[in-house]
Design goal:
This protein has 218 residues and is mostly beta strands. The two termini are 31 Å apart. It is elongated and about 65 Å long. A hairpin with a 4-residue loop joins strand 6 and strand 7. Helix content is 5%, strand content 68%. 16% of the residues are buried.
Length: 218
């Protein structure tokens, strides 16, 4: 049995101007009247990860990985968040400052996978784990729509439990295939809901169950 352990730390920072939202029109409502506006976006991400790969025997290899993420972001907007249906006063009453948005999110992401050689040409492989996706600047600055029937004023990170199992086979050095069945249980899926006056608005879908298969021939 052989173990290989890798670990590391990653830090990422971004700072830029995002063409994010549109100007306010009137006192309460946000529309495209007057054109687009800009937001100054800052993002900081810290991650620690560790992975252990084990060659159990000549046929079986397993791998376990773990990542911890710590993310801060902030956007200063020259105007309120774009949403043609929502009065600014409703956002403020909901505790959301449409000009200054900040968030702090942490996540723990474990992943396990294996590969088992049935023979020299055929192998069974599989994986189960969690995935995490933080909204990007465009999504954070274009919230809209509804979450469980309630006005969406803040985008949540998207998380998922991923499961897959597959079979690969090589006929020779030039021909082979890989077929994988997968299932994803997604919470708070981030999805654009079309354009409001040519500006896409984003919302969280509470739960999505995806399943299917992928086939690759090479």
């Amino acid at each position: 049995m052989k173990y290989t352990v890798t670990w590391g730390y990653a830090y990422e920072t971004r700072s830029f101007t995002e063409l994010a939202i549109n100007k306010a029109y009137g006192t309460n409502y946000m529309t495209t009247k007057g054109g687009y506006m800009y937001g100054d976006y800052d993002y900081d991400s810290k991650s620690f990860y560790i992975q252990d790969t084990t060659n159990v025997n000549s046929k079986l290899t397993t791998s376990f990985g773990y990542r911890h993420n710590d993310i801060h972001d902030h956007i200063d907007i020259d105007g309120p968040l774009f949403n043609s249906n929502v009065p600014q006063k409703d956002l403020l009453q909901a505790g959301v400052d449409p000009y200054h948005l900040s968030s702090h999110e942490t996540s723990n992401v474990p992943v396990f996978n294996f590969n088992y050689a049935l023979n020299e040409k055929t192998a069974l492989h599989g994986a189960v784990g969690k995935s995490y996706r933080f909204p990007n600047a465009k999504e954070r600055s274009g919230v809209g729509g509804y979450y469980n029937g309630v006005l969406s004023t803040y985008l949540l990170p998207e998380t998922a439990i991923n499961r897959e199992v597959g079979l690969s086979h090589s006929f020779n050095s030039k021909l082979g295939f890989d077929i994988t069945l997968f299932n994803k249980d997604i919470d708070n899926m981030i999805k654009g809901q079309g354009a409001g006056y040519q500006h896409t608005q984003y919302e969280n879908i509470p739960h999505v169950d995806m399943h299917g298969f992928e086939a690759e021939f090479h």
